[in-house]
Amino acid sequence: MTKEILANGKVTRSWLGLHCQALQELENYFGTNGKRGVLISSIDPGSPAEEAFLKAGDVILEIDGTPVSARYVEELPAFYSRIAAHAPGDEVTLKVLRNEEEYTFSLRTKELGQLQGEDYECREWGLTVRAITGQMKLQYQLDDTLGVFVTGVRRLGPAGLAGVRRHDVIKSINRQPIADLSAFVERYTSLVAEDAQRVLLSMDRAGARRLAVINMETAHKTTDETGE
Predict the structure, then answer these.
(1) pLDDT string in tens for the chain (228-residue length)
(2) Domain limits at 138?
(3) What is the CATH number of the domain that holds 154?
(4) Are 175 and 89 in a shared domain?
């Protein structure tokens, strides 16, 4: 871990979007009969686990061919550590028990924090956004956790010139709903790759819906004139 901090300035950990619970109280229902396994209690939207079609109620029997078990809550940290120890982008193979049948799933890990709790920089648009958590929903009195939360805007960047402000919640891009940060990143990177010059954003601001048009041509002219 020390070597990793010196090399990268931080410790990177992988994430699959799985939430698990001890199997002890439910093992008879799920048919494990006191044997090995880790019970999935929920799946994060937009996570590698959801993309692989894992479901709440699945029981993970193996990771990369090695049996795993979390019959008691004290055993869950060791299971999560097995996942976190993978490098972001690694392929992980899970053997899963579902409805008394065994299935194998392949998932590719993402960096913990990349899509949770950290800002995502949209350099070309001049803003940063973050996934909306339940805590943020309460703190900022939001209607739901759909969309992405704007945490910063460059004053003379494309988003700033379009009228986007900190604490706006982006709900759609070019009339396509944005459910979460993963969907936002996918849409943003696609538009940047296409060199899209005009992008329509629909946002919530203090409970009111607002529209903003990011105009890359205007932003480039302003940057040339001001040097910012």
Answers:
(1) 334 333 443 445 677 888 788 777 676 666 555 567 888 888 877 788 989 999 988 999 999 999 998 887 778 778 887 887 788 889 999 999 998 899 999 999 887 654 445 678 888 999 989 888 876 787 788 988 899 999 889 888 999 999 999 899 999 999 999 998 888 988 998 899 888 999 999 999 988 999 999 998 875 554 444 445
(2) 120-226
(3) 2.30.42.10
(4) no
Domain boundary among 111, 134, 167: 111
Domain count, the chain: 2
Task: Give the Cα separation of 96 and 118 in Å (integer).
Answer: 31
The residues near 147 (Cβ < 8 Å, ≥ 6 apart) are: 132, 169, 170, 171, 172, 178, 179, 180, 184, 204
